[in-house]
Amino acid sequence: MIEVAGLTKRYGEKLAVTDLSFTVRPGLVTGFLGPNGSGKSTTMRMIVDLDTPSSGTVRINGQRYRDFRAPLCEVGALLEARSVHSGRSAHNHLLALAQTHGIGRRRVDEVVELVGLAAVARKRAGGFSLGMGQRLGIAAALLGDPGTLIFDEPVNGLDPEGIRWIRTLLKDLAAQGRTVLVSSHLMSEMALTAEHLVVIGQGRLIADQSVADFVAAASGNTVHVRSPRATELRDLLLSTDVTVRADGPDVLEVSGLSSDRIGIAAAGAGIPLYELTPRQASLEEAFMTLTRDTVEYHGGTPSSPPGDPTTTAGRSGAELVGTAGAVVGGPGARA
Amino acid sequence: MTAATVERPAPSGLAAGAGYRVTPWRVLRSEWTKLRSLRSTLFSLLAAIVFVVALGCLISWARVQHWDQESPLERLRFDPTGVSLSGVFLAQLAIGVLGVLTFSGEYGTGMIRATLTAVPHRLPVLWAKAVVFAAVTFVLMTISSFTAFLLGQGVLSSRHIDTTLGHPGVLTAVLGGGLYLTVVGLLGVGLGALIRSTAGGIATLFGILLVLPLIVHFLPSNWSDNIDPYLPSSAGQAILSVVHDPTSMAPWNGFALFCGYAAVALAGAAVALRRRDA
Ligand SMILES: Nc1ncnc2c1ncn2[C@@H]1O[C@H](COP(=O)(O)OP(=O)(O)OP(=O)(O)O)[C@@H](O)[C@H]1O
Ligand SMILES: [Mg+2]
């Protein structure tokens, strides 16, 4: 169990993390999501006491990290940046870490085997590929057989086989009753591994809920409607908590109303419907919706004029034609 | 290669059961493993040994060759111990770099993060690194210093201008070769931890040891005479000379002051290590 309470980290003028509070429970994989620079890695470094919070606290199983007598046996951490001396072999790297705790060579060989580095264990880590380096980091995290694991973008640089391996590993670790926190950019990856999500944007908490709730809350119930009298229907449906977006002359995307209610409303007004399809947003879309306003570093598309800072990738498409009440987005958007 | 091999009766059970915990002795062992498992350690130490021994012999040989041409004043000032130990001044480069690298190497590669997550109290890492480094350097450099002295005297004996360990101050100076190099390295360890970058650490260390005395010599002479003896380099090197210069500090006093400078650097490193983000 990791309890983060009121965590704030300031680097000079820059607030990397602001009043962040969440709890990571054991027995399931918790995904830690957020756009670039949102403070995921910073939070993870604070969990293992590498960075000191400007304010707030982190407790792991009720204790501060630095108070553990055997920290590697409590928390295993794979950090974003490589944490290996490039001149040392994988085996000696792990051995040196193990020796601080009195962990024996057998365990070192075990984790080397586990992550599939046995063949290169005696080679200099500096010559490792990105994926091999990542595996070595995972071996170090597993060294003390800890009850809590934090992985900062573990799939970074792994091949498809490695990604599948990580996915299984994370799930197995959680199934054994461990606390597992994994950060990632890949929503599709999280959809397959995580059961719970902590989402942050610009260092603030945006959502802390199950994957299913997250998708539902972020997208609302979008219903795709096609009707020859779309404008009329839009005016009919618009009310507090209902958002209607036009996707073409006769196409509407309605959120905040079930397809049943729209059907009944249309029938009542005698408006014919050609299409009425409830749509569940993917985790990817849910994430984009939710973090849209907090993305700091936008990428332009090749066709956009160079140097135009307002262009954002993936934000093209329909404009809002009418909004009443809450705008789509935010955990509380669903009525 | 599946996770099925991760066996675990209950989370957090392992730590309590097997007596796994961080102790100063274990951190020391870990740092020993780290030191011996890097090629840079091997190269630096090998270079230092070669410098001390080979340069001492070479300079001794050169003096023997030119003895006939040397003036009476030069002969009067001749210090057979100092000549045979002249390699120490070159070896300090290798040892100093190795000292700086003990920390800057970890900061540069990111290893420090792994180190500090394993030992979150941090200070045991500093002490362990300093102790392991000092022990290895002292043993190897003392042996080198004695070897250089004995070989050098062997060369000088062909002209009967050699000395023995029994002469006053000679034993201190030969021991001093190992001691001086060890403390140069410790100064490097402290600066490496404070500055974190290899280039910056090395520049600072040799700025203090080599450049500072040159600059002080440009000061008005009554200033420089009062400052120079107390510079880290002059204080530390006082122990190396048998023929005593009245303006410099006494051998052991100078060495104690030099140790003080290294202690200040290590204390600064301790504060920085505790306070700063990794
Ligand atoms: N050591 C540091 N000094 C100054 N600023 C920092 C430092 N570490 C992080 N930051 C800033 O804090 C913010 C959060 O960074 P962080 O690395 O935690 O983000 P992240 O969510 O991990 O991003 P990414 O998804 O790109 O890995 C960024 O704006 C970054 O520039
Ligand atoms: Mg990151």
Q: Can you walk me through this structure?
A:
- The complex is a heterodimer of chains A (335) and B (278).
- Chain A is α/β, with parallel strands linked by helices and 335 residues long.
- Chain A has helices at residues 40-47, 71-74, 90-99, 105-114, 130-142, 160-175, 187-193, 211-219, 230-237, 259-269, 283-291, and strands at 2-11, 14-24, 29-33, 55-60, 75-78, 148-152, 179-184, 196-201, 204-210, 222-226, 243-248, 251-255, 275-279, 320-323.
- Chain A is built from eleven helices and 14 strands.
- In chain A, strand 1 and strand 2 (14-24) form a beta hairpin.
- In chain A, helix 4 packs across helix 5 and helix 8 (211-219) crosses helix 11 (283-291).
- Chain A is elongated, with a radius of gyration of 24 Å.
- Chain B is mainly α.
- Chain B has helices spanning 13-17, 24-36, 39-66, 72-77, 80-84, 88-109, 111-118, 123-156, 170-195, 198-217, 221-227, 232-237, 251-275.
- In chain B, helix 3 (39-66) packs antiparallel against helix 6, helix 3 packs parallel to helix 8 (123-156) and helix 6 (88-109) runs parallel beside helix 9.
- Chain B is globular, with a radius of gyration of 22 Å.
- Residues 1-13 of chain B have low confidence and may be disordered.
- Chains A and B meet through helix 2, helix 3, helix 4 and helix 6 of A and helix 2, helix 6 and helix 7 of B.
- The complex binds adenosine-5'-triphosphate and magnesium ion.
